[in-house]
Design a protein that fits this description.
Blueprint: E1 3-8, E2 12-19, E3 22-30, H1 37-50, E4 57-62, E5 65-67, E6 71-74, E7 83-84, H2 85-93, E8 96-101, H3 102-113, E9 121-126, E10 130-136, E11 139-140, H4 171-174, H5 176-188, H6 207-215, H7 219-243, E12 247-251, H8 253-258, H9 260-273, E13 284-286, H10 293-303
Parallel strand pairs: 1-4, 4-8, 9-12, 12-13
Antiparallel strand pairs: 1-2, 2-3, 5-6, 6-7, 9-10, 10-11
Helix pairs in contact: 3-10, 6-7, 7-9
This protein binds zinc ion (ZN).
């Protein structure tokens, strides 16, 4: 009996079939979110049915606010707001469906892959945005539904604007959306950087280009790297004071592509900023599953954890 896991991303739908804990088949198609809800749901169902075979259940990862592993409350880049996705998928495919926030599922995947040993784990995933997830007391913690929005804790009052509608959030300094603001400001000031070469205004930054710029010593790339690592270290230090989790797990394109030097810099700032009497319990690791963490989380959920 196999289990499916579908990552419903802003640009692609990635479906994986798991057998005995490992991915045995994958298929990917573009999301085409601009075509609207009906078209998107039709594409999702067709993709799922094309790989259903002997599957009994499916996990669905959504980049948005999800209630009761079922209902999509808000999802800014997909036309699925206020929709009972679980009921729809179950009716159309005959599979048991479990819907979750993509970052929460990514943290869950990382946690289970490590054997689920720790009771309290905080996940921070830095890519275009800064996603957060919490496992408290051995369970994913979602508060009243939307908890874990670590990227939207305030870092700098009156700081950069943020995609959430607020100001000065950690996301605006750690993640690429914030780096992009600084880049455009820099371009307007007439600055020179290899990060500006061959790119169109407003286009999202590529983590690999950021990493390359940093390695080459480009001054703007070094500034963005240092600012991001310092902000992430600050977020970790503050969260450690509140939750003192057993482990922090860092992932996402920014963390993966910058590599070891970034991890060391984040760790350095977390150690500088952590409450001194709690410094000895601070433990940080990087993602084991990289870009597949969410897909694994969806699988573990659909499997019955
Ligand atoms: Zn925000």
């Amino acid at each position: 009996m196999s289990i499916l896991s579908l990552d419903v991303g802003g640009s692609k739908l990635l479906l994986a079939r798991f057998s005995q804990g490992e991915i045995v088949e994958e298929r990917q198609i573009p999301t085409l979110a601009h075509e609207g809800r009906e078209a998107l749901l039709k594409r999702m169902v067709e993709l799922i049915l094309s790989m259903k075979e002997d599957a009994s259940s499916i996990g669905l990862l959504i980049p948005g606010v999800i209630y009761q592993n079922s209902y999509v409350r808000k999802c800014s880049n997909l036309p699925l707001n206020d929709f009972d996705l679980k009921a729809f998928i179950e009716k159309e495919t005959g599979l048991s469906a479990f819907v979750g926030n993509d970052v929460s599922f990514a943290l869950y995947g990382e946690w289970k892959k490590r054997g689920g040993h720790f009771n309290n784990v905080v996940g921070l995933f830095a890519g275009s945005g800064l996603g957060g997830g919490l496992i408290l007391g051995g369970e994913l913690y979602s508060g009243q539904g939307a908890a874990g929005e670590i990227g939207h804790m305030n870092y700098i009052p009156e700081g950069r604007s943020c995609g959430c509608g607020g100001w000065g959030c950690y996301e605006s300094y750690v993640a690429k959306s914030g780096m992009l603001q600084r880049l455009e400001e820099f371009a307007q000031e007439g600055g020179n950087s290899i990060l500006l070469e061959g790119r169109k205004s407003g286009e999202m930054l590529d983590s690999r280009v950021l990493a390359k710029g940093y390695k080459l010593g480009d001054s703007l790339a070094v500034e963005l790297f240092e600012e991001s690592a310092r902000a992430l270290g600050s977020a970790i230090a503050s969260l450690h004071a509140v939750l003192e989790p057993d482990l922090f797990i860092l992932g996402g394109g920014v963390v993966d592509d910058y590599g070891e030097e970034y991890f060391d810099e984040v760790n350095k700032w977390a150690q500088i900023l952590v409450m001194p009497s709690m410094a000895n319990t601070l433990k940080i690791e990087t993602s084991m599953l990289k870009g597949k963490a969410g897909i694994y989380g969806g699988y573990y959920f659909a499997k019955g954890k």
